[in-house]
């Protein structure tokens, strides 16, 4: 953790994070009359490149390289046009342009990984299904995980995404596709496994069905989102056999989790 703080220009001491009772306090939302950030402080510095992050941290630190790319695939573009009654014309991206760009992007990132990651564990992941497929076809050394909300809507979801790509609208379909493409697994919202029952209605039978499907297909599953940082869900995730959870503020979370263990000092 100290290596990561140094990488971003922060002091190594965890006391620099605002806390109350030893627990991290999330900062309030910015207001129009708030002072401007210090452009000469850590928050004003450029983000380190991936190659720097690899070189300046221990090879004991694993990386989840989430590759940001537009989620809408070529299939989604064509399906949207058909649903809207639009002609399939040359203005739509075709394999010669769409996949050429995906291919080039994957080559660039993989080149950085091969040259700088060293022996550390590295996971590759993306919301773009085609990009995940390309990553798997290009190499089999690094695990590739497909990120999907599995039908749980979001204000940031691309227009009509849930209607044009079943891999984003149905978690079972996403699991089947990941298995078909020989991916290592999926990343999805913890709400599918009961992390935030007040936001998403699920039941134990549905959870057990998903777990059975993943076990049968030998797929890993990481979860993120509302409720996954609650200690109670961590125990549920362990009992379910989920591969892991994705959270922010790992140091504060681990302090909270350690404090919750029997025999821990108050």
Automatic annotation (TrEMBL):
Biological process according to GO: glycerophospholipid catabolic process
Gene3D superfamilies the UniProt entry points to: Phosphatidylinositol (PI) phosphodiesterase
All residue ranges annotated as the GP-PDE domain in the record: 1-257
InterPro entries according to UniProt: GDPD, GP_PDE_dom, PLC-like_Pdiesterase_TIM-brl
Pfam families named among the record's database cross-references: GDPD
Keywords annotated in UniProt: Hydrolase
Region (Disordered): 1-47
Gene Ontology terms, MF aspect: phosphoric diester hydrolase activity
TM segment ranges: none
Protein name per Swiss-Prot or TrEMBL: Glycerophosphocholine phosphodiesterase
Lineage, top ranks: Eukaryota, Metazoa, Spiralia, Lophotrochozoa, Platyhelminthes
């Amino acid at each position: 953790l100290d290596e990561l703080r140094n990488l971003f220009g922060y002091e190594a001491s965890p006391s620099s994070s605002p806390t109350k009772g030893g627990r991290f306090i999330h900062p309030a939302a910015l207001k129009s009359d708030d002072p401007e950030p210090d452009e000469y402080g850590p928050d004003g510095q450029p983000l380190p490149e991936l190659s720097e992050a690899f070189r300046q941290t221990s090879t004991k630190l694993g990386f989840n390289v989430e590759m940001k790319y537009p989620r809408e695939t070529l299939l989604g573009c064509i399906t949207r046009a058909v649903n809207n009654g639009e002609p399939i014309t040359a203005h739509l991206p075709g394999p010669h342009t769409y996949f050429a760009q995906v291919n080039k992007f994957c080559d660039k990132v993989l080149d950085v990984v091969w040259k700088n990651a060293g022996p550390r564990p590295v996971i590759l992941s993306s919301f773009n299904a085609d990009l995940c497929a390309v990553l798997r076809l290009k190499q089999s050394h690094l695990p590739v995980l497909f990120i999907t909300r599995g039908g749980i809507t979001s204000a940031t979801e691309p227009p009509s995404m849930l209607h044009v790509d079943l891999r984003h609208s149905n978690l079972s379909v996403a699991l089947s596709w990941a298995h078909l493409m020989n991916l290592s697994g999926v990343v999805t919202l913890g709400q599918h496994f009961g992390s935030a029952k007040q936001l998403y209605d699920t039941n134990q039978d549905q959870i057990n069905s998903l777990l059975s499907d993943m076990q049968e297909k030998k797929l890993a599953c990481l979860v993120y989102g509302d409720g996954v940082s609650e200690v109670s869900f961590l125990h549920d995730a362990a009992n379910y056999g989920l591969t892991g959870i994705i959270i922010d503020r790992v140091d504060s979370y681990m302090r909270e989790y350690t404090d919750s263990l029997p025999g821990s000092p108050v």
